[in-house]
Fold this protein.
Amino acid sequence: MRWLVLTLFLTACGGGDGDRAWRLRAAGPNADLATLLVHADVDAGKRAFGQCAACHTIGAGGQALAGPNLHGVIGRTVASDTRFGYTQALIEHGGRWNAARMDAWLAAPSRVVPGTRMAFAGVRDPMERADLIAYLTEESR
Ligand code: HEC
Protein backbone atom coordinates (compact mmCIF):
# COMPACT_ATOMS: atom_id res chain seq x y z
CA MET A 1 0.00 0.00 0.00
CA ARG A 2 2.76 2.40 0.90
CA TRP A 3 4.42 2.04 -2.50
CA LEU A 4 1.11 2.80 -4.16
CA VAL A 5 0.80 6.08 -2.27
CA LEU A 6 4.40 6.89 -3.12
CA THR A 7 3.84 6.10 -6.80
CA LEU A 8 0.77 8.30 -6.91
CA PHE A 9 2.67 11.10 -5.21
CA LEU A 10 5.55 10.85 -7.68
CA THR A 11 3.13 10.75 -10.61
CA ALA A 12 1.45 13.91 -9.35
CA CYS A 13 4.64 15.82 -8.59
CA GLY A 14 7.35 14.34 -10.74
CA GLY A 15 6.54 15.98 -14.06
CA GLY A 16 4.98 14.44 -17.13
CA ASP A 17 1.34 14.02 -18.01
CA GLY A 18 0.14 13.26 -14.47
CA ASP A 19 1.56 16.54 -13.29
CA ARG A 20 -0.02 18.38 -16.21
CA ALA A 21 -3.46 16.90 -15.54
CA TRP A 22 -3.11 17.93 -11.90
CA ARG A 23 -2.18 21.50 -12.84
CA LEU A 24 -5.06 21.67 -15.31
CA ARG A 25 -7.43 20.71 -12.49
CA ALA A 26 -5.81 23.30 -10.21
CA ALA A 27 -6.40 25.97 -12.86
CA GLY A 28 -10.10 25.09 -12.79
CA PRO A 29 -12.66 24.16 -15.42
CA ASN A 30 -12.82 26.55 -18.38
CA ALA A 31 -9.73 28.41 -17.17
CA ASP A 32 -8.75 31.20 -19.54
CA LEU A 33 -5.29 31.45 -21.05
CA ALA A 34 -4.01 33.93 -18.45
CA THR A 35 -4.96 31.52 -15.65
CA LEU A 36 -3.44 28.55 -17.47
CA LEU A 37 -0.21 30.51 -17.90
CA VAL A 38 -0.07 31.09 -14.13
CA HIS A 39 -0.07 27.29 -13.72
CA ALA A 40 2.23 26.63 -16.69
CA ASP A 41 5.58 24.92 -16.24
CA VAL A 42 8.62 25.83 -18.35
CA ASP A 43 10.26 22.42 -17.88
CA ALA A 44 7.09 20.64 -18.96
CA GLY A 45 7.00 22.97 -21.96
CA LYS A 46 10.57 22.05 -22.76
CA ARG A 47 9.60 18.36 -22.70
CA ALA A 48 6.52 19.04 -24.83
CA PHE A 49 8.75 20.84 -27.33
CA GLY A 50 10.05 17.38 -28.21
CA GLN A 51 7.12 17.11 -30.63
CA CYS A 52 8.28 20.31 -32.38
CA ALA A 53 12.02 19.58 -32.43
CA ALA A 54 11.91 17.45 -35.59
CA CYS A 55 11.10 20.66 -37.47
CA HIS A 56 12.27 23.53 -35.23
CA THR A 57 15.47 24.51 -33.43
CA ILE A 58 15.07 26.95 -30.53
CA GLY A 59 18.60 27.96 -29.52
CA ALA A 60 19.85 31.43 -30.52
CA GLY A 61 21.08 31.30 -34.12
CA GLY A 62 19.84 27.73 -34.60
CA GLN A 63 19.43 26.54 -38.15
CA ALA A 64 16.14 26.26 -39.98
CA LEU A 65 14.96 22.68 -40.39
CA ALA A 66 11.60 21.93 -42.04
CA GLY A 67 10.41 24.94 -39.99
CA PRO A 68 12.08 28.20 -38.90
CA ASN A 69 14.26 28.68 -35.79
CA LEU A 70 12.00 29.71 -32.90
CA HIS A 71 14.42 31.57 -30.64
CA GLY A 72 12.72 34.78 -29.51
CA VAL A 73 9.51 33.97 -31.37
CA ILE A 74 7.22 35.46 -28.69
CA GLY A 75 7.05 39.16 -29.54
CA ARG A 76 8.56 38.55 -32.98
CA THR A 77 6.80 39.59 -36.19
CA VAL A 78 5.03 36.59 -37.75
CA ALA A 79 7.07 34.97 -40.54
CA SER A 80 10.12 37.21 -40.02
CA ASP A 81 13.11 34.81 -39.90
CA THR A 82 14.87 35.95 -43.07
CA ARG A 83 16.69 32.61 -43.35
CA PHE A 84 13.42 30.76 -43.85
CA GLY A 85 11.08 30.61 -46.86
CA TYR A 86 7.56 30.99 -45.42
CA THR A 87 4.30 30.38 -47.22
CA GLN A 88 2.46 33.44 -48.50
CA ALA A 89 -0.38 32.38 -46.20
CA LEU A 90 1.70 32.83 -43.04
CA ILE A 91 3.32 36.05 -44.31
CA GLU A 92 -0.13 37.52 -44.93
CA HIS A 93 -1.28 36.47 -41.46
CA GLY A 94 0.88 39.36 -40.22
CA GLY A 95 1.23 40.94 -36.78
CA ARG A 96 3.33 39.69 -33.89
CA TRP A 97 3.32 36.47 -31.94
CA ASN A 98 1.88 36.95 -28.47
CA ALA A 99 0.54 34.34 -26.07
CA ALA A 100 -3.05 34.46 -27.34
CA ARG A 101 -2.11 34.15 -31.00
CA MET A 102 0.37 31.38 -30.21
CA ASP A 103 -2.30 29.50 -28.27
CA ALA A 104 -4.70 29.55 -31.21
CA TRP A 105 -1.94 28.60 -33.68
CA LEU A 106 -0.70 25.68 -31.60
CA ALA A 107 -4.24 24.38 -31.13
CA ALA A 108 -4.87 24.12 -34.87
CA PRO A 109 -2.26 25.68 -37.20
CA SER A 110 -4.12 25.13 -40.46
CA ARG A 111 -7.40 26.42 -39.06
CA VAL A 112 -5.74 29.70 -38.01
CA VAL A 113 -3.68 29.98 -41.19
CA PRO A 114 -5.27 27.99 -44.02
CA GLY A 115 -2.55 27.04 -46.48
CA THR A 116 0.29 26.97 -43.95
CA ARG A 117 3.00 24.40 -44.56
CA MET A 118 3.30 23.55 -40.87
CA ALA A 119 2.13 19.94 -41.13
CA PHE A 120 1.13 19.52 -37.51
CA ALA A 121 -2.33 18.59 -36.29
CA GLY A 122 -2.12 20.76 -33.17
CA VAL A 123 -1.95 20.34 -29.40
CA ARG A 124 -5.38 19.63 -27.91
CA ASP A 125 -4.55 19.96 -24.20
CA PRO A 126 -4.81 23.65 -23.20
CA MET A 127 -2.41 23.14 -20.28
CA GLU A 128 0.16 21.61 -22.62
CA ARG A 129 -0.18 24.63 -24.92
CA ALA A 130 0.32 26.94 -21.94
CA ASP A 131 3.45 24.95 -20.99
CA LEU A 132 4.75 25.34 -24.54
CA ILE A 133 4.03 29.09 -24.51
CA ALA A 134 5.83 29.44 -21.15
CA TYR A 135 8.84 27.66 -22.64
CA LEU A 136 8.78 29.70 -25.88
CA THR A 137 8.53 32.87 -23.76
CA GLU A 138 11.50 31.78 -21.65
CA GLU A 139 13.48 31.18 -24.85
CA SER A 140 12.47 34.63 -26.11
CA ARG A 141 14.13 36.63 -23.34
C1 HEC B 1 6.33 18.69 -39.43
C2 HEC B 1 7.13 19.87 -39.12
C3 HEC B 1 6.65 20.79 -38.02
C4 HEC B 1 6.30 20.48 -36.73
C5 HEC B 1 6.24 19.11 -36.07
C6 HEC B 1 6.04 21.74 -36.07
N1 HEC B 1 6.21 22.77 -36.94
FE1 HEC B 1 6.04 24.76 -36.53
N2 HEC B 1 6.38 25.23 -38.48
C7 HEC B 1 6.68 24.31 -39.47
C8 HEC B 1 6.75 24.99 -40.75
C9 HEC B 1 7.05 24.36 -42.11
C10 HEC B 1 6.49 26.36 -40.48
C11 HEC B 1 6.38 27.50 -41.50
C12 HEC B 1 4.91 27.50 -41.94
C13 HEC B 1 4.60 28.39 -43.13
O1 HEC B 1 5.48 29.06 -43.69
O2 HEC B 1 3.40 28.40 -43.49
C14 HEC B 1 6.28 26.47 -39.04
C15 HEC B 1 6.02 27.65 -38.37
C16 HEC B 1 5.91 27.79 -36.99
C17 HEC B 1 5.77 29.03 -36.28
C18 HEC B 1 5.75 30.42 -36.90
C19 HEC B 1 7.19 30.98 -36.80
C20 HEC B 1 7.40 32.36 -37.37
O3 HEC B 1 8.58 32.70 -37.60
O4 HEC B 1 6.45 33.12 -37.57
C21 HEC B 1 5.69 28.73 -34.95
C22 HEC B 1 5.54 29.70 -33.81
C23 HEC B 1 5.77 27.29 -34.84
N3 HEC B 1 5.90 26.75 -36.10
C24 HEC B 1 5.73 26.61 -33.64
C25 HEC B 1 5.72 25.21 -33.54
C26 HEC B 1 5.61 24.50 -32.29
C27 HEC B 1 5.62 25.16 -30.91
C28 HEC B 1 5.55 23.17 -32.60
C29 HEC B 1 5.35 22.00 -31.66
C30 HEC B 1 4.21 22.05 -30.79
C31 HEC B 1 5.66 23.06 -34.04
N4 HEC B 1 5.75 24.32 -34.57
C32 HEC B 1 5.67 21.86 -34.75
C33 HEC B 1 6.86 22.96 -39.31
C34 HEC B 1 6.59 22.24 -38.15
